[in-house]
Amino acid sequence: MSETQFSFMTPSRGHMIDGRFITERENFNRLLNNETPYWIPRCFDMAAAVGMGLINENGKMGEGGVDDYGVTWVATESANGATTPDPNHHIMQCVTQWRDVYRPADLEAIDWQGHAARDLEAIDLEATLTSYAMFEGFFQRFMAFEGFENCLCDLIEEPEECREFIEAMCDERIALVEKLAEYYQPDYIIFFDDVAHKNGLFMSPEIFRDLFKPAYKRLFDAMRSHGILVNMHCCGLCEEIVPDFIECGARMWQSAEPVNDVQRISREYGDKIIIDGGMNSHGSFIFDTENADELVREEARRCIREYAPYGNFVFGDTLTDRHLSELLLDEFRKHYLTFYRDSEV
Amino acid sequence: MSILEDISLALQNGKRKEVTRLVQEAMDAGLPANSILEEGLLAGMSVIGDKFTRNEAYVPEVLVAARCMNSGSALLKPLLAEDGVRHIGKICIGTVAGDLHDIGKNLVSMMMESKGIEVVDLGVDVPAEKFVRCAVENGCDIICCSSLLTTTMQEMSKVVQCAVEAGIRGRVKIMIGGSPVTQEFCDRIGADYYTDNANSAAIKAREILTSVVQ
Questions:
Q1: Strand A188-192 vs strand A129-134: parallel, antiparallel, or unpaired?
Q2: Cβ contact (<8 Å) for A282 and B99?
Q3: What is the pLDDT of residues B92-112, one digit of tens each?
């Protein structure tokens, strides 16, 4: 992909508000302090992604291939080149094999200093935040290793082996956090672990709490010990365990899809968790081609109308369709700067 | 408690070895294979499926139960064939072209089998023509399409179109599902049925197939 295709991800430094230049960082800090922000922050405006590609977590965008953990990924055009684990090629059939196949990424082989210098050079750290995307959380990598079915059955049939595998993955992630803290000190780390689908969790909350939550807590504690905020990415209907994310130390929840009662969560936990997303990426604008333009604009307005009043909201625009993405962003741009002074949307 | 209830309960609890042992015991006691299947294994799967629909059971419980059912029904297979026990109908299923996600499709397959339906699994990344060709060649009553991506769900309308062109639309129903799929989308592309979870899909398919048989 060319750089222009990622132009919507170019971070901003801030805005003039009432004659004073307010940085993105200053605005975001107001959310952290549970104060009304000057404007509605947008994830791609407020933070620059750093450390991209340091570790091959899921194959190469647009190409796929084998990642640093031995998993084969396949890129599909339909997902704009995003990769998915090859469903016909799993590196283990049962979690009891994990000790034979799991090799942590070689963090010492990375030129941390060189990468960090290049990444951070162009970023005005006074004005803009930095974020690191920690793709493939424990559940996702587990599934990548042996596929959904084996993984989910193992959670019931081999819980102790699962626990040990998850804790081993957690050790590796903590070692990565140490490196990131030393060379990048990102403001937040987005931890991707989609443990839910559109109708609910992939596993019972009890299994999540028993096997995954302790590792989440240990990893998030490591991030927080370096002053790094935790942004928990979890798509699907997961509101039942959002309080668990908070307990583990997450300060942000990414995607926060509207199959969840996002407003209720903001009412009950708004001072503890920042909503980073909220968009319905499966809205009817996807297939209603006649009305798509207006529908996607309305989706931007809905997010603002429903979530921004709580003052804990970061707009997250992530649509695959380029045209619709542009309209979504255009609509957001009409309102975000003035919303907290003139809330008509 | 009868041995058939024991089989059902052991399956619901995901006890594969126990299910296998009990099925063997029931066979040795001379119980009809069809009763063991219907009142033991499938009855247990039905309970798990309903719990799944009500969010009281989760995907792992369904998968483990399905593995129990497969172990038990493997023992019964020769006897069922001898007794001339048939499936209530046949469906073909796949994830549409461009989409490699298989969990939803696999879950629906298992649920379908647990309702006594024969399943032809076409796998992932299945072109529209292949769904229709399979339905024609195998005499399937229903085509089931799964999609997880907003960019691939449009492939489902191609399946509908292909079925129209092949002249099978009158006798073959088309069911769709998957994360981005909705009833509104189903209506728009002219598919027959949308269901929002695997168990509902199997219940709907059974409903269609039994009404076809009648």
A1: parallel
A2: no
A3: 999 999 998 888 899 999 999
